[in-house]
Structure formats: structure tokens, C-alpha cells
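Now for today's protein:

——
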Amino acid sequence: MNAHLASRTRGARRLAAICVLAATALAAAAIPSLAAPAAKPGRAGSGTITFHFYSKVASLVLTRADGTVVQQPTQAPGAGDQLEITENAYRGTHQAHSKKVAATSHTICVFKSANGAPVCDGQAAVGGNQLLLFRTPAGDDTIVSGGTGRFAGASGTVASTQIGDTDDSDLVIVVRLHS
């Protein structure tokens, strides 16, 4: 993989990792002992929760706009190409994390042009079959954009730190619950 493609793919993977870990954070939110919401007046189900997760890429597939699946791409993605990523998320950080997967995620990043950052949308399966939805507009930060169950109407932010020269990331997810 050439350096330009590796850099853009790693960036898209990082965006996907953020989406996956955000979902993992929501899975932890379903279990009160994992994280306590910050005290915030309001109705039951409202508040702010901050999560810390370690995300590992499970699979990554680049599909060209014409439908061709590329295993070892030698050129940069073009307009219409997509990167599909699945990840496993663990409570904690890369230095100290749970052994058991806390959530899984699926993200698709679509390249709108050959030179720009992709737009990514992701879903994460969390405790109790609840879903958390994420969106990363091209070149922007990843945001929490809703979900199901406790996370219906949720909003928030995700910060990602890439671990060395890998596709793995430590995530900090701040979720605002709305009832």
C-alpha cells in the first residue's frame, strides 16, 4: 500500500474506531457500575456520561466505486470508493483494558473525492441490544447522533488517540443523554 493511501486509510480507520468505541462506551453506560453519569439536574435518563475505551479493528475492506474489492490497494481511493470497518471495543485503554469485548461496531466511510477525507457513518451494538449511531462528516470530528433505548436522542463527542503505528485507538466518549 503506498504512503498516501496508507495515511488516508489509517485516517478512515481512526474515524471508524472512534465510531466503534463510542458505541462501546454506550454499552458500558447500560451497566451502572462501569461509569457513573455526571450529576446533572433533570429527568430520569438525562445526564452526561464519559467513557474510556480501547478499540481494535477486526476487519477492513476497501471496495471501489465499480464494486471491485481490493485486498492490497496500490493507489489512493477515488470518488465513490468505500471503506468498511468492523471493530471490537474494550473498557479501559490500550495499557489496561477489559479482556471481554464490551461492544462491536460497523462503520462505512465513503470517499467523496480522490483527495478529501471520507464521510463515515457507524452503528454500535451495545448492552441490551441498544444501538448508538455515529457520524463523521468529511474532515470533521465524530459525533454521537442518536441511538435506541436509553440512547434515543443522545448526542455527544468522541476523541480518539491512535496507538503507535497501528489501526487501534484509545477513545474518550462524552455522551449527553436526553429524555
